[in-house]
Amino acid sequence: MTVAVLGAGKIGEALLSGLLDAGHDAGDLLFTERHPERAAELTDRYGVAGVEVAEAAKRADVLVVAVKPQDIEPLLDELAGLIGPGSLVVSMCAGLPTSLFERRLPAGTPVIRVMPNTPMLVGAAMSAVSPGKHATDEQLQTVERLLSSVGKVVVLPESQQDAVTALSGSGPAYFFYLVEAMIDAGILLGLPRAVAQQLIVQAAVGAGTMLEEGGEHPVMLRENVTSPGGTTINGIRELEKHGVRAALLDAIESARDRSVELGKAHEE
Ligand SMILES: NC(=O)C1=CN([C@@H]2O[C@H](COP(=O)(O)OP(=O)(O)OC[C@H]3O[C@@H](n4cnc5c(N)ncnc54)[C@H](OP(=O)(O)O)[C@@H]3O)[C@@H](O)[C@H]2O)C=CC1
Ligand SMILES: O=C(O)[C@@H]1CCC=N1
Fold first, then answer.
1. Predicted ipTM?
2. Binding-site residues, please?
3. Per CATH, which fold does 3-158 belong to?
4. If pLDDT is split at 50, 70 and 90, which confidence band does 268 have?
5. Among 38, 113, 231, 249, which residue's beta carbon has the most beta carbons within 10 A?
6. Which sign does the torsion angle of CA 108, 82, 145, 12 carry?
7. How far apart are CA 142 and CA 138, in angstroms?
């Protein structure tokens, strides 16, 4: 099976790299890029061929659309004249509904909407998958299998994709932001930056592993760190005083709203 990534930016590269690490053959992967120097860099790094969209449409069984939602219109115009009956289109674009692709591509084109995240680069993606109206169960399974090689996969109704985009699509950015702020706190307390970074990154990895493997609720895990009359509760009081929980709710709601807005921009 040949997979072509249309738009090999951050997420497109993460997919190529994750698939190669998972054992996919470079010869079964293609990508398109509009900057020749970026294409050359990717071919050097991964041994994957950069091609024109027409060649990708001709050779690939699965076309993964990974351009910014703002760049979708010209690509759809181009693809509309190129897509053959055997092509399966997978969109990773935030906010864009499968109905947009179905309306603009040849009648009956199977489309599957996916929201992955950048940990795909290290085989630890969370991908949520929603089939459009022409995608068969077999095509859904193909996409699930492909994405399972680079992380975890859930199948969800498309109506939940804007929420998923805000939660797990953007989620890594919020964790990185917290880590960055906590490293700054280490600097404030006089630790060398490298030491602060090592301490916080390992605390994040340890917490993530406990969340994933321990099976305990996050509230319980936090309570276990919070000794009576100890240090952690002082920190928690400050987080509550500064409304960090409400800030996260607002942040994720706002990201969801932006996903809805990106989709609306392409309504008929
Ligand atoms: N980054 C993330 O964590 C995630 C992103 N996504 C989705 O993935 C998509 C890409 O996001 P991201 O990787 O961050 O964005 P990037 O801008 O890094 O990647 C998109 C790439 O596609 C190129 N491009 C645009 N139009 C074309 C075209 N017609 N043919 C070939 N290449 C083209 C862009 O070139 P140029 O540099 O000139 O713009 C760019 O290199 C978005 O729709 C986003 O919603 C989904 C989940 C997570
Ligand atoms: O910021 C964005 O729009 C993309 C979608 C989810 C993560 N990154």
1. 0.99
2. 66-69
3. Rossmann fold (3.40.50)
4. confident
5. 113
6. negative
7. 6
Split at pLDDT 50, 70, 90, the class of 132 is very high
Q: Is the pTM of this model over 0.90?
A: yes
Q: What are the backbone angles phi and psi of residue 189, rounded to the nearest 5°? A: -85, 5
Q: Which of 72, 91, 117, 170 to mutate to test the pocket of ligand 2 (most atoms within 8 A of CB)?
A: 170
Does any ligand 2 atom lie closer than 6 A to the CB of residue 169?
A: yes
Question: Given the structure tokens 């294409």, which residue do they identify?
Answer: 39
**Closest residue by Cα to residue 34 from 42, 26, 25:** 42
* Range list for CATH 1.10.3730.10 in the chain: 171-261
Identify the pLDDT of residue 231: 98
pLDDT for res 246: 98
Q: Which residues contact 163 (CB under 8 A, 6 or more apart)?
A: 256
Three-class SS of residue 7? coil
Judged against a pLDDT cut of 80, whether residue 54 lies above it is answered with yes
Does position 190 have pLDDT exceeding 90, yes or no? Answer: yes
Please say if the pLDDT value at position 142 is more than 90.
yes
**What CATH homologous superfamily does 171-261 map to?**
ProC C-terminal domain-like (1.10.3730.10)
CA distances, 173 to each of 9, 185, 241, 255 (Å):
16, 18, 23, 12
CA of 32 to the centre of ligand 1 (A): 11
Tell me the ligand closest to 93's alpha carbon.
Answer: 1
Tell me how far apart the alpha carbons of residues 62 and 86 are, in angstroms, rounded to a whole number: 9
Q: How many CB atoms lie within 10 A of CB 29?
A: 21
Domain with CATH 3.40.50.720 in the chain: 3-158
